[in-house]
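Figure 3 (text version): structure tokens given as input.
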């Protein structure tokens, strides 16, 4: 057993756990970050080159959080010494005067976030590479853009270590024993912490089972698809922002990023997929996802080839209301959970890391965590 008792032990070095560890080490807390796989790895939800960031959310509480998150991303860049955020804007696409655009406009306006509303003629004129019905409009969230996901994760972890944090990878936590000092077992060592933050991504159900906690989480396989431009450069980030359309593809939403990370290829994906067992992610039929996306691309992106050129796998952990759980574990004031980020948690991670850290230190969090409480879900049967 290691003699040291850490102020906080964080389990899971995905983006949420790494952000929490970074926040704590920066505040001078003696922090240990444990990750089950050797880093970097591509088995969870935080790998890959890019994520969308935006302030445009229909819910005020996310837009409010994104103001501070954007500032922290910039700060992290300075601390790490490399680019994490590339401004490119974010386009919310929908029916002119439809609920989706109206809700986004309201939240952006109430929270003083800059944006432009493009009525149908302006939308068509500004983005001639897109083909949407004549009544379609868009919001340009000018503070949105691209997060360089792999580099962001590395920035958190590198800076965490620079502030004195200890990161141990290849260390799966197999048992967590409650107490005033919590004990965490891994195959090679045992660690102790005054508080623990658990950010397990799609392994949440496994790690929560021994605590008698079952959440209604669905682990979803996402097909990350790239589509080749017919004319190189026509959908480059200098011409097209990141984008999202809600409930458009057989009731599912889609999102995309301009050609940038793989030159000549636009990343565009269904915001949904088949439910999986996390240990057999790739043993599932994804043909229906690709077929839906082919139809979408053919209809709305005529300048792209109508079959994906590259496919990469990733995982969402979805809650029924698409909001994460950020709360103490029932019965513990020194074990905090951050899980169920439902496919939109990357951009939020600077603020998620901060509030997880505040909870672990017994402090009042800087934001209301009411939408993220664990008890909004009734206890589930059948552990
Ligand atoms: C294809 C795709 C596109 C996305 N696009 C966006 C986007 O555009 N914008 C956005 O904001 N968000 C986006 N997201 C969502 C975002 O990436 C996730 O919400 C976020 O990465 C979740 O991070 P996490 O730390 O909760 O989970 P993970 O990244 O899965 O991290 C959990 C970590 O815990 C470790 N772990 C689990 N159990 C143990 C254990 N027992 N012991 C030790 N370690 C353990 C795992 O190995 C893993 O490393 C996207 C996600 C995907 C998959």
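Below: residues designed for each position.
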């Amino acid at each position: 057993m290691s003699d040291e008792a850490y102020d906080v032990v964080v389990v899971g070095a995905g983006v949420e756990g790494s952000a929490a560890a970074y926040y704590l080490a920066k505040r001078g807390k003696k922090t240990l970050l444990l990750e089950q796989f050797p880093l970097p790895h591509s088995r969870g939800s935080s790998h890959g080159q890019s994520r969308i960031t935006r302030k445009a959310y229909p819910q005020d509480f996310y837009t409010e959080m994104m103001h501070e998150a954007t500032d922290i991303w910039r700060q992290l860049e300075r601390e790490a010494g490399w680019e994490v955020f590339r401004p490119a804007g974010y386009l919310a696409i929908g029916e002119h005067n439809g609920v989706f655009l109206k809700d986004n406009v309201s939240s952006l306006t109430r929270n003083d976030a800059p944006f432009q509303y493009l009525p149908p003629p302006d939308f068509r004129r500004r983005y001639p590479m897109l083909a949407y019905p004549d009544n379609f409009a868009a919001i340009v969230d000018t503070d949105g853009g691209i997060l360089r996901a792999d580099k962001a994760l590395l920035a958190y972890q590198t800076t965490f270590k620079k502030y004195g944090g200890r990161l141990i990878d290849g260390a799966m936590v197999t048992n967590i024993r409650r107490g005033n000092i919590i004990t965490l077992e891994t195959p090679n060592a045992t660690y102790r912490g005054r508080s623990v933050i658990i950010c397990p991504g799609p392994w949440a159900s496994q790690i929560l089972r021994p605590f008698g906690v079952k959440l209604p989480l669905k682990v979803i396989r996402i097909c990350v698809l790239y589509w080749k431009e017919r004319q190189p450069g026509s959908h480059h980030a200098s011409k097209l922002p990141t984008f999202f359309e809600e409930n458009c593809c057989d009731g599912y939403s889609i999102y995309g990023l301009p050609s940038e990370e793989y030159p000549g290829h636009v990343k565009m994906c269904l915001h949904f997929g088949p439910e999986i067992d996390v240990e057999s992610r790739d043993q599932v039929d994804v043909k229906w996802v690709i077929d839906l996306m082919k139809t979408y691309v053919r209809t709305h992106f005529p300048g792209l080839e109508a079959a994906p050129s590259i496919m990469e796998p990733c995982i969402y952990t979805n809650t029924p209301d698409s909001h994460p759980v950020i709360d103490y574990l029932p019965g513990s004031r020194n074990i905090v959970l951050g899980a169920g980020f439902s496919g939109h948690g990357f951009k939020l991670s600077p603020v998620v890391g901060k509030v997880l850290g505040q909870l672990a230190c017994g402090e009042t969090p800087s934001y209301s965590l009411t939408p993220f409480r664990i008890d909004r879900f009734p206890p589930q049967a059948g552990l």
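The longest helix spans residues 60-80.
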